[in-house]
Amino acid sequence: MAWHVFIPDSLLEETDDPKIRTYKVGQVARACAIFGVEHIWIYRAGGRDGKFIKTVLEYMETPQYLRKRLFPLMPELRYVGVVPPLRTPHHKLKGKPKVGEIREGYAFRKGRKIYADIGLDELAIVEGNIEGRATFRVVSTRPLKVVPAKPVEYWGYRVHLSGKPLAKTLKKAHLDLAIATSRKGRDVRKVNLPPLEGEVGIAFGSPRKGVMELLGGEYEFDFVLNTIPNQKTKTVRTEEALLATLAIFNLIRRD
Amino acid sequence: MAWHVFIPDSLLEETDDPKIRTYKVGQVARACAIFGVEHIWIYRAGGRDGKFIKTVLEYMETPQYLRKRLFPLMPELRYVGVVPPLRTPHHKLKGKPKVGEIREGYAFRKGRKIYADIGLDELAIVEGNIEGRATFRVVSTRPLKVVPAKPVEYWGYRVHLSGKPLAKTLKKAHLDLAIATSRKGRDVRKVNLPPLEGEVGIAFGSPRKGVMELLGGEYEFDFVLNTIPNQKTKTVRTEEALLATLAIFNLIRRD
Question: What Pfam families does this protein's entry cite (chains A, B) (predicted)?
């Protein structure tokens, strides 16, 4: 199965400090990485931070050794030093290349050959016709050669800035199971969930509006769940609900 | 039942930025408040931030209207503006006093009477002999009179800076059930937990050392549990593990 999470572009509407804004997006990235979320959708909810959120999330998802190639200096990344690294399987450290190893890389044409930066001391020769960011398997170490490959471990998330409200964004994702989180939802302990299979989405509201209020009735969730029954604080923030909810669903998934 | 959580004084050892350090302690406070934790114990683990953590946690737990009375200006609180409020039941807003209402207050002697600031426009006359921070029930509105009372809702947490290593701190807490969280622990899904009753403690490790490594073998936990099976990141931070673990135990508790 694959996880999709839906967060609003108004995630940061109550946060002014630019360092804390960056750190908060970092919390979202960390929560998604810890629990192996494959897709993060940013939906339109009256906020102005969609691009900022996307940029920070994508920066964090990119292996350290590819960041300079893929991200020019930009104001959105000014405080990105405060966020902790993801340390997911696709953020490999430098080391001796090993045949069979899968590494994330960036491929580019140089003369008549294609080379890839896979985070090692030397560039790898690419066997195949691919450019840009891609996943590679090492097939030879002397000379260092790679072929395009499919990852076998958790390989980070993709970020989708939908530019559309929640209902339209959910439709775009073609989910097999759509879950909303809401304080007014049914207690997660009292619901019999089907097996989590295929594309499973979990939607979160914004700091000021719940999911159901943002939805406008144009989409039918399979479940509206309260994952934090008996909460003692008046509100639970999006990034808090995200981590708490993923922690619970991590125990429910079976694969 | 009552929750006790145990966090190390080295919680912030990987965080240099003073604003982010404050924000992180705020995450701990928020997680504990959302799930109604009654006691936060800070144990000695080679860190230097015990007092800082305690001060920020206590500041956040104090109702806004009592903060000026209870906290002098101090460097630890310089960045406390970045942390979100707890908005627990004991952080009451101003309003018209109601007979029967329970409010947190600060009582002090003035002449021959004792008055309490309970966050309203006027001071309340205290019937009873109490000074300092305390919980009161309004028994009359004209004149405004209060008596000492016991809270009936979740009323915040107490912070204990033990000054001792984890094992000694755990002993001090006189727990009925002691749980450690560890990546190397048993999968929480595969363990039959007893009913959560009495004083239930959950211990968390530090950024660089797990609970079992910090324990030194001087204490016997009832359970060592992995609450984040199949984590996809190499490490999970204390504040992340805290929120995730409390979210899961919130579904297990029965009262």
Answer: Methyltrn_RNA_3
